[in-house]
Amino acid sequence: MADLSKYLEQREKLKSYMENEANRDVLCWYEENAQLYEQSFHSFGFEYHKTVMSAVLKHVKDKNSRILDCGAGSGVIGEMLVENGYHNMDALDGSKSMLDIAKGKNIYDKLVCATIGTKPIEAIETNAYDLIVSAGLFAHGAVYFESIPVLMEHLKQGGYFIFDIADYPGEKINRLLSIQRFKGLAVEWEKKGFCRLISEERGFHSHQAHPNSIMTLHKM
Length: 220
Ligand SMILES: C[S@@+](CC[C@H](N)C(=O)[O-])C[C@H]1O[C@@H](n2cnc3c(N)ncnc32)[C@H](O)[C@@H]1O
Fold this sequence. Notes:
alpha/beta, 220 residues, Methyltransf_25, binds S-adenosylmethionine, Putative Williams-Beuren syndrome chromosomal region 27 protein-like, polyprenyldihydroxybenzoate methyltransferase activity, Rossmann fold, SAM-dependent_MTases_sf
């Protein structure tokens, strides 16, 4: 049974770690609060996972696609992928206790615990996936856009990377992760012949309040 008040209290701590861009503290938070996250997720009113799932259904029609769920956490997106007929999935996350919950759901083939940064992730094959999906991964103190080229190494040519960016215009927490900054980087990546932004869908991060954008990058 979800203890939403406890989750909200813990979330304030997470928010302060994020504002301080304290990656170790953010990952420790997930490590310590994995069960609470899992129990409270659906009561909190998040919407971002639904918007990411809609973009996957729109852009990736082949249900046999090989998928890497980056920042898979407790497997929220993985469960939705399975409900929608996808089945060939691996999970990557920096928190072992989040992955332990995901493992119990029996939806992923391989689960890899590794921190996503700007160094190659050796435990994951390169040029192997048709789709990389991430939901709720790009956040201060968590993962920044600079990790996108590293993650895309794991995609096959012609593969897609679909992910959300929460839009908090004017807020302190939006410094490095603004949609405007992402689009500037995407123009540079396209000029280098690396990948192309093929779609942006607008949705909501949570509670039908904070908007978000779901980006689809196509590896060239
Ligand atoms: C908001 S949760 C999203 C989980 C899941 N995708 C969902 O929609 O419920 C963010 C996840 O990213 C993971 N994470 C944060 N920073 C990370 C990093 N630098 N490397 C790997 N995983 C990270 C956390 O452990 C957590 O499971």
